């Protein structure tokens, strides 16, 4: 019997208020005049992963807790307007919110409202089990209630992915996610030794694939066969915003994985999707579609220019650049 859904996305719904600032860090001043303005829209990590997967043609269902409030209405409309199936569970503290300060170069600083979460927040087991039973894969967002779903998803036999975002490699909150997923995404932003952290995840947890996104340095993929460097892909339009680039990379990578592509091709899909996301303003909610992804990949792999397929690094020293923290510009998770 075939599954009803290719991917069940858990958690990560919320609303962002986007503020464009003249520079980051923002120097203290009594006031700033902001253009093109300040806008509140639905879309946090789980929303954008679900959007990216759905735009690429994967049958996607999103499950999360949201409030009975105007912010929740924006989240509901986000899914309804894009045809993404969404199951909501009441969140007593209200829909999650954040403020994103976005600089002229597309970098962002996110301020998360931590008052919305409560110790008792849970996704009901029966709902998780029911949706897991008709899904092939689960992508688990790094939100508190989702940690309790990991055993249920494994029990259902699903493969699992997660995104640790800007984990520092030490915070114990992230460990259940890092060690409980088959595919782990993480940003190198806060990692002092990214390769060491990646190898620890591979050695200690369930993961067979660990992906570290590194901004302008591209990304790195670690498996039991070694380390792979994924070069950046130059966007076809100007880079204006890094919001959602990591979520788009994850969606592109998972699309390749779930459609049976090679690891190199999965990584290339992720790089193309992430680059596209950097051309979309934070106030918009757009993702590369299936036709656009394949067209861009064909253009890249059909030319002699570097940056097409991933550069494989084996055990021979010097076959790839050192895995280091990224510069301050470029896509972020």
TrEMBL record:
Keyword list, A-Z: Kinase, Transferase
Record lineage: Bacteria, Bacillati, Actinomycetota, Actinomycetes, Kitasatosporales
The organism's place on the tree of life at top rank: Bacteria
Residue span(s) of domain Carbohydrate kinase PfkB: 49-286
Pfam families in the record: PfkB
One function term, GO molecular function aspect: kinase activity
InterPro entries tied to this protein: Carboh/pur_kinase_PfkB_CS, PfkB_dom, Ribokinase-like
Region Disordered: start-end pairs: 303-333
CDD domains assigned: adenosine_kinase
Name this polypeptide is given: Adenosine kinase
Keyword Glycoprotein: no
Record field: compositional bias (Pro residues): 324-333
Keyword DNA-binding tagged: no
Organism per entry: Streptomyces zaomyceticus
